Automatic annotation (TrEMBL):
Its cofactor is Mg(2+). This is 3'(2'),5'-bisphosphate nucleotidase. Gene3D superfamilies: 3.40.190.80, Fructose-1,6-Bisphosphatase, subunit A, domain 1. It catalyses: 3'-phosphoadenylyl sulfate + H2O = adenosine 5'-phosphosulfate + phosphate; adenosine 3',5'-bisphosphate + H2O = AMP + phosphate; adenosine 2',5'-bisphosphate + H2O = AMP + phosphate. Belongs to the inositol monophosphatase superfamily.
Length: 543
């Protein structure tokens, strides 16, 4: 497939969008004209870049649909935001085409408001498994953008759900990794079957230099380095550390935002990219992976999900049939997958709120409502004055101290109520144990005694608030049994026991174990909620 024109347009569009995003950063973020939590710069950069890239694509390939992260609804409702975006895009369009940029394409110096908003809305295409489609993340790594760290403008062309072309512009990545303080701003490109390349964003007519991954083999795997998300909510950093350990990797992980991770490993700055799901329900977005996946493959690597399945771009806007991402040199990919299967704990439970609650925005009444946190809080955490606390706040925004107070209250109330349930379970067990010990000769008594031991470890741990007994069920098949696994196994065994000994004592054992499993299930959910809240509020380290 000859995609040279597509490549030229994609390089121009992403490089120009990268310049535009830098202007936004320099004028709105670097000079501290906005507060840290104000997301407007990233919003402005996102819309402007999508508008610019989409406009160029629509002029060059009018019949190609576009899957983009944004739509223009918010802009149509805010004149101030809209004017800024229109101004920025027109400013970029008015810079004359340089040598090497798109030939034979009349950009027109400035564009009408509607044309630019419509360009953004072209990105609402829902995806397709057949035909051509472009896929755009105008600012990937929004957190990195705001931090002045890594972010990327990412564009891919898919044909029949296969990524044929990928281009990623990283405005803050050093051109030469050996000179981290030298020139920054690199654009990466790959065409299927034709290799992976990079060149400085500043050189629109410069040659595309071939890049490749470090030639790492199973015997040199321990010298590898891996990279992962900065955001612990996007990828489990704890599991990544265990996996690195399993592979004998001792180097500290390199954390960076966005698809700059795919770019880094493609040119050998690092070797393995791990994205390990922390939530069972999160579906990765196609624009977060399409170009990166091709780049790594063309640089000598292999990209799959954590179950070693190819990333499947044929199901609309998300990778619904994949979980996480593992990218590594093709010679070591299998070793990495093996370690992942051994050490990655499948997320068994999904918190009801998946947003980075406290980092994204102050905890507000609207947020509580939209995340169903209010009702969950009432039913699970049982904090009677939580609603009053939120309602009494006229601005419906809680400040830091109030957020802290809520988290502490949730944790305390949660721990107290769970302890009560466990005391009740423990009491049932003691009564039943006493009965069994005094009727040892009755049929099934010994089996019943053994079955009653299954909930004991977690009961003891909670009642003493210490990890007295920990049983890790790590077998790859068993780990997909939802928590509480030992309890569920106990219930299953006691059903078998009841089939063997149809007597009242065995029925009682089954009832107690079922009660214990159900209450344990709900308690673990609430404990996980409390832990997640804690993590969101205080960060991974103190969680
Ligand atoms: N719970 C989650 N798990 C995995 N990825 C998530 C996530 N929530 C958001 N993301 C995605 O992670 C991307 C950033 O990736 P990374 O963590 O590698 O920097 C975000 O892209 P945007 O920044 O474009 O919104 C967003 O699409
Ligand atoms: Mg993204």
């Amino acid at each position: 497939m000859n995609l040279s024109r597509e490549l030229q347009i994609a390089l121009t569009a992403t490089s120009r969008a990268a310049n535009l995003s830098k202007n936004v950063f320099n004028s709105l973020v670097a000079n501290d004209s906005v507060t840290k939590n104000d997301k407007s710069p990233v919003t402005i950069a996102d819309y402007s870049c999508q508008s610019l890239v989409s406009l160029l694509l629509s002029k060059a390939f009018p019949s190609d649909p576009l899957v983009g992260e944004e739509d223009a609804d918010v802009l149509r409702q805010s004149a101030e935001l809209k004017d800024k975006v229109i101004g920025l895009v027109n400013n970029e369009l008015s810079i004359p085409l340089k040598h090497g940029e798109v030939d034979g394409l009349d950009l027109g110096s400035t564009q009408q408001e509607n044309t630019l908003l419509d360009a953004i809305d072209r990105g609402t295409f829902q995806g397709s498994s057949t035909g051509r489609m472009w896929c755009l993340d105008p600012i990937d790594g929004t957190k990195g953008f705001l931090r002045g760290g890594q972010y990327a403008v990412c564009l891919a062309l898919l044909v029949d759900a296969s990524v044929e072309l990928g281009v990623i512009a990283c405005p803050n990545l050093p051109v030469n990794p050996a000179q981290p303080d030298g020139e920054r701003g690199v654009v990466f490109a790959a065409i299927k079957g034709q290799g992976a390349f990079q060149r400085p964003i500043s050189q629109s007519n410069g040659a595309l230099e071939p890049i490749s991954m470090n030639a790492i083999t199973p015997s040199t795997l321990s010298s590898a380095s891996f990279c992962e998300s900065v955001e612990s909510g996007h990828s489990s950093q704890g599991d990544a550390a265990n996996i690195a350990n399993e592979l004998g990797i001792t180097k500290e992980p390199v954390r960076m935002d966005s698809q700059a991770k795919y770019c880094s490993i493609s040119r050998g700055d690092g070797d393995v990219y791990l994205r390990l799901p922390v939530s069972a329900s999160y579906e990765e977005k196609i624009w977060d992976h399409a170009p990166g996946r091709l780049l790594v493959a063309e640089a000598g690597g292999k990209v799959t999900d954590i179950h070693n399945k190819d990333l499947d771009f044929s199901h609309g806007r998300t990778l619904k049939h994949n979980k996480g991402v593992i990218a590594a040199h093709k010679d070591i990919h299998a070793n990495v997958i093996k370690a992942v299967q051994k050490r990655h704990s499948a997320p068994a439970y999904t918190p009801s709120y998946e947003m980075d609650l406290f980092a994204e925005a102050p905890l507000s009444w609207q947020l509580c409502n939209s995340m169903n946190l209010r009702s969950r809080t009432r039913s699970i955490f049982q904090v009677p004055d939580f609603e009053e606390l939120v309602d009494s706040h006229p601005s419906q925004i809680l400040d830091e101290d109030e957020q802290t107070a809520i988290v502490e209250k949730l944790e305390k109330a949660n721990a107290a109520s769970n302890k009560q349930y466990r005391i009740v379970t423990a009491a049932f067990i003691v009564v039943q144990l006493t009965y069994l010990l005094t009727h040892l000769s009755a049929s099934g008594s010994l089996i019943n005694l053994a079955l009653l031991l299954t909930p004991l470890p977690s009961l003891l741990n909670t009642l003493t608030s210490r990890d007295l007994i920990t049983i890790r069920i790590t077998h790859p098949h068993l780990k997909y049994i939802p928590e509480p696994r030992s309890h569920l196994l106990g219930v299953a065994a006691s059903i078998v026991g009841l089939a063997l000994y149809r007597n009242a004592a065995t029925s009682r054992t089954l009832t107690i174990l079922t009660f214990s499993a159900i209450t344990e299930f709900w308690m673990r959910r609430s404990e996980k909620d409390a832990r997640e809240l804690h993590k969101l509020k205080y960060g991974q380290k103190s969680a």
